[in-house]
Amino acid sequence: MRKKECRMESVRAEKEKSENQISEDESQDIAYQNKDIASKMFAEQLKGKSFQVYGVEIGTIKAVLPTNIPVIRVNELRLDNLLELEDGSMMLVDYESEYKRESKVKYLNYLTGIVNRYEKEGSICPDLRMVVVYTGDIRRETVSESYDVGAIKLSVEPAFLSEIDGEAILMRLKNKLKNKEKLDDREQMEFIILPLSYKKPEEKKAKIQETVNLALKLQDREQQLFVLAGILTFTDKIIDQESAKTIRRAIQMTKVAMIFEKEKEEAVNEERKKWQQVIKEEKQKVHEAVEEERKKGQQAVEEEKQRGQQAVEEEKQKGQQAVEEEKQKGQQAVEEEKQRGQQAVEEEKQKGQQAVEEEKQRGQQAVEEEKQKGQQAVEEEKQKGQQAIREEKMKFALKMIADGELSLKKIAEYTELNIKIVTELAGQ
Predict the structure, then answer these.
(1) Rounded to whole angstroms, how far apart are CA atoms 111 and 155?
(2) For residue 71, which of 6, 18, 94, 113 is within the disulfide window of CB 3.0 to 4.6 Å?
(3) More confident residue, 152 or 418
(4) What value does the mean pLDDT take over residues 74-99?
(5) For residues 132 and 141, what is the distance between their CA atoms, to the nearest angstrom?
(6) Is the distance from CB of 97 to CB of 238 less than 8 angstroms?
(7) Residue 326 pLDDT
């Protein structure tokens, strides 16, 4: 609790310090404040974004470099931005609310100052690009992109905010904030230059106030700080002291709110850690209790297992004894049944032998009778056969006699009949 109170005191002190700093800063030049306070916060979050939204075809910003070039006269402001791009080149960015040909001399001073710095460090200067962002009251046809004085030639890449539809951007941003949607990188960069896209000075000032009020509705604190710092940095050449003061106060309040949120997050994390520790301890206790119960359970299971094994052994012995007794009874019963079976088999065997003998005798008698009947039938059939053959021979003999071609003797030989019978047949 004491630690939390100390943190709150620290936050209040930071807030008072910020408000005192604002009062002190009001006595200094507004442009100096913009460059040295807001631009630092703005530059910290410029990495990873692009100027493509302003009509300048460049890659993603890789790093924001220091802009304090020693050769620039002390009564000149430092250049607005010095950026390292993904392709390794370096881009100088300046913002102008009016076009002056002599401004290109200032750009040359910037460029030669950077080259001189690399020469002094003994390193190779990368390719340099000079980008000038013109506010909404400067039109493309009024600007020359080159500066040629013979031995010196300068090529500037201009970006004209007059060619941006500020009202369409404003409407789109309002709708996103109304729906509490987070802005993407392009929309954040559009937000920053929105006031400068208008032509008339009074319009610019009015839009500065409107965009600041709109920025205060951003839910994301980091995006809010980036947009406010960007507006203050980009509009420093047209902004009045009261508007600049309002933006700086909003920035400070956003920073204080971020500190409060950080303190809140730290407090939540601290409570979370405490609860995690409590949960961890309770979890350990539960684990120990479970482990103890597990051991008791294992012991109880082991005891029950031993009792069960003992009971099983006893039942096994009883079962073996009962099986042995039943086995003996069974063997005795089997032996008795065996004896009775052998006796019955013997009796049946004797009866069978006696019946077989009787059947054998009856069979032999029947066979003898059938044999006699068969012999008699065979004899009768033999006699019938012989009679039939004799009749056929006689018919054949009659036929030959009728033919008259053979003698009776020959006919008797052919038919194996007695000559006497043949002669009788011939006489018929």
Answers:
(1) 12
(2) 113
(3) 152
(4) 76
(5) 15
(6) yes
(7) 87
Q: Extract the tokens encoding 367.
A: 């066979």
Q: Which amino acid is at 215?
A: A
Interstrand relation of 128-134 and 153-160 (parallel, antiparallel or unpaired): parallel
Cβ proximity of 125 and 77 under 8 Å? no
Q: Show Cβ contacts of residue 93 under 8 Å, excluding neighbours closer than 6 positions.
A: 51, 79, 80, 81, 82, 83, 131, 132, 133
Find tokens 């053959």 and name the residue: 389
Q: Which amino acid is at 348?
A: E
**Single-letter amino acid code for the residue at 6:** C
What is the pLDDT, as a whole number, of residue 77? 39
pLDDT at 261 over 80: no
Residue 94 sits at φ, ψ, to 5 deg, of: -130, 150
* Nearest alpha-carbon partner for 223 in 231, 9, 130: 231
Q: Which of 246, 281, 296, 232 is nearest to 41 (CA)?
A: 232
Residue-wise pLDDT for 211-229, tens only, equals 888 888 888 888 888 888 8
**Rounded Cα–Cα distance for residues 244 and 289 (Å):** 66
> How far apart are alpha carbons 414 and 428 in whole angstroms?
20
Q: Which position has the token pair 């410029």?
A: 46
Number of CB atoms found within 10 A of residue 243's CB: 21
pLDDT at 1: 52
Q: Say if residues 220 and 180 touch (Cβ distance below 8 Å).
A: no
Structure token digits, residue 138: 């400067």
Residue 428 has pLDDT above 80, yes or no: no
| CA 416 distance to own-chain centroid | 120
Output the CA angle 53-59-62, nearest 5 degrees: 110
Instruction: Output 267 or 316, whichever has higher pLDDT.
Output: 316
Alpha helix stretches (DSSP H) within 78-165: 103-121
Do 199 and 162 form a contact (C-beta atoms < 8 A)? yes
In this prediction, residue 423 carries a pLDDT of 85
> Nearest Cα to 158, choosing from 59, 54, 46?
54
Q: Beta 153-160 vs 146-148: how paired, if at all?
A: antiparallel
Token duo for residue 56: 């300048």
| Beta carbons of 95 and 238 less than 8 angstroms apart | no
